[in-house]
Amino acid sequence: MPDQVTTAWTIKSVELQPYGVPDKSKAYTIHLKSKTVAPLVGLSRDGILLSINTDADEEKLPPLPERIPAPAAVNPRDYMNQEMLSAGSVAKMAELVAQEIYDIRDSRNALIRGEADNTPKDGAQLQLMLNQMDLQTEALESLFKGVKETSTEVFSLSVIPSEVTSKMLLCRFSQKLGLVDGDDLSGEPVYLSIENLETLPTPVQDEATAKKLAKVDKGVFYNVPARMKATIFTSSQKLAELETPMGQFGCVQLLSNLLFDKKTTTKVTFFQQTGGTKDVME
Known about the structure:
Helices cover 21% and strands 26% of the residues. It is an alpha+beta fold and 282 residues long. The strands form 2 sheets. Strands 4-3-5-6-7 form a 5-stranded antiparallel β-sheet.
C-alpha cells in the first residue's frame, strides 16, 4: 500500500493586469488663479490627476481569484469492516481489502443485471446503491493506488518596466516547489518582454521641451502614453500577452491655460492607468 507523498505543480493560467502608479519624478504644483475657471481638480488617493472641472471615479484593481482548495479526501477506513481493521499485518489487511473490492464489484454487476436478491424496482434507488458502491470501491482502491488531490493556488507579482527589453527575468517556476524567487535556481526561468508598438514618430515633445514651452504658455502637464506589448514566457511556451498603453514610455504634453479662461469652461478627464487624456469637453 502506497505511503509516499509527492507534489507536482503546473501553471494553469497567467493574466496581465495593467495599473497606474504615481511617477515621483513628475510632480507638479497646482496654482489656481483668480481669472481661471479650473477650480475643481480630482486626484486619486496616491496623487494621480484624474479630472479637471468634473468628477471622475478612482479605479481599483480587480480582486484576485479565490484559491480553490483540494476537496476533502474519502477516508478508506470508513469503509473497512472489523476484520480488516484488526488485521495483524499490512499484507493480511491488503488481502482482505482486495477481496472486499472483488465482492463489491460482483454485487454491483448483479444489481445492474437484475440478478441480485435485493435489486430495487425504483430506478432512483438503484442508482443510489450503485453510487454508494462506486464510492466504497474508490475509497478501498485508494489504499493501493493512492489519492490524487488537486488544488488551485493564486499568486500576484507587481513589476514596473522601465525600459524596452526582450528578456527580463520575472521569477522562476519549479514543478516540485511552485513559484519561487528569481535567484532560486531550483525553478525554470519565467521572463517578461516589453516591446514598443509605436511605428510612426510621435509628434510630441519630451518633458524638458514641455517645461520650456510652459514658461511662455502656462497650463496643465499630462502624459501621452506609448502603446506597448508585454509578454510573459518560458523557454518552452508563451504564458500571457497584452497590448496596452504604458505611461512611462510616453511623453509629457501641455494643456494650455487658454482652455480654462473665463470665456471657456473645459472639462477634462484622464486615464488613471497611463495619465493620458480620456475626454476633453467644453
